[in-house]
Specification:
extended, alpha+beta, five-stranded antiparallel β-sheet, 376 residues
Length: 376
């Protein structure tokens, strides 16, 4: 337990006490939703932003909401704070942008699904990261690929050559590292580093097939309001490809294959996009809101919640009923039974061995035989 010893005038001690209360706070945290995607470019789409602007309208609760474009500002040039907007009707055409997700909730996920429906937008990962203020956080997903490092040749006894290869493993990962810093205006400055390694074909070196590893890196620093969504892009890669068309089998015969088929060279251009939504977690209510949003974004979220906290309807639950063997009075005792006493009770029994006031018990087979033998 930390302690602070202060000595001085009362006004100084009071001021120091106020400063300690201001400093002795739980550190703020930031929860970041991220979508890392690859956009396939072409003649009609030169950048990823072009694709974002094509998917402009998403219908929610019967209303079309414009969400495409970059982050917008208000009339006086300041950033729009989504926390101050309570309904969809509060948005106008001049306030469109990805920042709508902070208020509408499921809109961001719907928008990503609409982008995937174009067959040009491929989601590589949807990580969720939570970290303390001004502390880095990292998430890595990938695999390790075997690569021949070196070879050793040796001659065995029968004169043949034996080749031994040493194998090393190379990491092929998708990495996202973020460092959020909360500003005084309820804005968040995010420093991001993203690296995407992929296996793109292979090369033959000294008779060994070695995989080619392509790398894409993004470094960025941006400031956005709490709950807004920013899009980072610009990393474009281009790969060459060849398409062969023609008659089956005949188009593969040398010399005459050009008469029955065509070969067309092309290129494949792709851009890496990152969408980030930071949210400040200051109170327990903020944490509950983040948890609720994440549960709603998953397919099995509500089912998992019901599994953890089942809600059973007991209104139609039937409990078993039993019939009383003897009539009972309001106190719960047989009316003809003798009253209980604090000492030894005096009870009169009949010839069959039962209390005189109790109803006769049914006699079974062996009891009837015993009574018959006794009467003889």
């Amino acid at each position: 337990m930390n302690s602070l010893l202060v000595s001085g005038p009362p006004e100084s001690i009071e001021r120091i006490s106020e400063l300690v209360k201001e400093m002795d706070r739980r550190p703020l945290q930031v929860h970041i939703n991220a979508v890392i995607a690859q956009v396939t470019l072409g003649d009609d789409i030169s950048t990823g932003v072009d694709l974002l602007r094509r998917v402009e309208d998403v219908k929610i609760a019967g209303q079309n909401v414009s969400i495409a474009g970059l982050y917008k500002t208000t009339a006086n040039g300041s950033f729009l704070d989504p926390a101050n907007l309570d309904t969809i009707g509060g948005f106008t055409s001049s306030l469109g942008g990805l920042n709508l997700y902070a208020t509408v909730g499921e809109l961001f996920n719907v928008y990503v699904n609409a982008l995937e429906a174009t067959n040009r937008f491929k989601v590589l990962s949807k990580p969720h990261i939570a970290t303390a203020n001004n502390e880095p956080a990292q998430i890595t997903v990938g695999s390790r690929v075997p690569i021949p490092a070196n070879q050793q040749s040796s001659i065995v006894g029968n004169g043949t050559t034996s080749v031994t290869s040493n194998i090393e493993y190379e990491d092929v990962n998708l990495t996202l590292e973020v460092t959020p810093l909360i500003n005084s205006k309820n804005e968040i400055t995010i420093v991001t580093y993203q690296e995407n390694n992929t296996v793109s074909g292979s090369s033959v070196i000294n008779g060994n097939e070695v995989p080619n590893i392509s790398t894409q890196n993004l470094n960025n620093k941006i400031t956005v309001p709490n709950g807004a969504i920013c899009t980072i892009g610009g990393s474009i890669t281009e790969s060459k490809n060849t398409a062969v068309t023609g008659m089956p089998f005949v188009s593969r015969i040398p010399i005459i294959k050009h008469l029955f088929g065509t070969t067309k060279a092309g290129s494949n251009r792709q851009e890496l996009l990152i969408m980030l939504q930071p949210r400040i977690i200051d109170t327990a209510d903020d944490l509950v809101d983040v948890h609720t949003t994440e549960v709603q974004r998953t397919v099995i979220g509500p089912e998992a919640e019901n599994f953890i906290k089942p809600e059973r309807d007991t209104s139609d639950l039937q409990l078993p009923t039993f019939e009383k063997a003897l009539p009972y009075d309001s106190a719960g005792y047989p009316p003809d039974a003798p009253a209980a006493t604090s000492g030894k009770a005096n009870v009169t029994y009949d010839s069959a061995g039962y209390p005189a006031g109790a109803p006769a018990a049914p006699r079974g087979f062996f009891r009837r035989i015993g009574a018959a033998l006794k009467s003889r």
